[in-house]
Design a protein that fits this description.
Immunoglobulin-like, 2 domains, mainly beta, single chain, 12% helix
Length: 280
């Protein structure tokens, strides 16, 4: 019995040691002050920490981090560990030790995060990952429309609501646009707002712009038909307001069409269930 207990303690001790990591055990990235090092994650980055001010960094894209040692801050020598960079995404974290090289040709220019380098992380700020959000939006995009009488016609265009689903703290708004002209529609922007109903708007009307967490389709032009799913944070608004989706066209044509969604329609949203998305 003592023998087995000793083995168990030894194994547990081994696991504990492997759970802790020193700089020398980290993945090393060689960097140089003449070269920009780009780290690309497999999903959106939510937080980046650079442990010292000897390295500058920014995040030009949602899943990309740029790093570069600062010039003239200190005299760097080969093998100096300038900093540890910590990258936290929606579902994992990863750390790299940045090691200086005096030879620019040895610096890492492009680093893709590998699954084997990551540590699972339950990010409390993320209730639904972008990957899961996209998967659910794609299911909704292929579902049959359940809303038949919510739409607007203007300039030989028709915009209509297809479905509204809810999952956790998110609304999935499925909408379509039909172009009944022979003129291609080049999308300038799609805006989401909560504003006064048209029949009750006054000079002091207020409009609140909403930023979607996800817009499934990124296409910017269509000839006849267009469909998309927008993911918005759950919201409530009074009956004298409407949720609007406004699609505008690039100049010169400059066509604009707006869909107004009453709160009663929002309240009819289905909870996301795979069974709800099956065709009848």
């Amino acid at each position: 019995m003592k023998y087995f207990i000793a083995i168990a303690l030894s194994v547990a001790s081994g696991f504990a040691l492997r759970a802790q990591e020193t700089i020398r055990e980290m993945e090393l990235l060689t960097v140089n002050d003449q070269i920009t090092t780009v780290i690309t994650a497999t999903e959106p980055v939510r937080f980046v920490d650079i442990s010292t001010d000897r390295v500058a960094g920014d995040q030009p894209l949602s899943n990309t981090v740029r790093l570069k040692p600062k010039e003239g801050a200190e005299v760097n020598e080969d093998g100096d560990i300038l900093a540890v960079v910590t990258v936290i995404t929606e579902r994992y974290r990863v750390q790299y030790a940045l090691v200086y090289t005096t030879r620019p040709q040895e610096a890492v220019t492009d680093k893709a995060v590998l699954l084997s380098e990551t540590v699972p992380y339950n990010n409390p700020a993320v209730s639904l990952s972008t990957e899961d959000m996209t998967r659910m939006a794609r299911r909704i995009w292929t579902a049959k429309a359940k809303y038949r009488n919510v739409g607007t016609r203007k300039n030989h265009l028709e915009i209509r609501l297809n479905n509204i689903y809810t999952a956790g703290e998110w609304f999935f708004i499925d909408f379509s646009v039909e172009n009944r002209t022979n003129i291609r529609f080049d999308i300038d922007q799609i805006r989401f707002k909560v504003e006064d109903k048209r029949r009750s708007r006054a000079t002091n009307s207020q409009s609140v712009e909403l930023s979607p967490a996800l817009l499934l389709e990124q296409g910017t032009t269509f000839n006849r038909g267009y469909r998309n799913v927008a993911v918005l944070k759950k919201l409530t608004f009074p009956n004298d307001k409407v949720l609007t989706i406004e699609m505008s066209e690039k100049q010169v044509s400059g066509r604009t069409i707006t869909l107004e969604i009453d709160y009663e329609d929002v309240l009819r949203a289905d909870s996301f269930d795979h069974g709800l998305l099956e065709e009848d």
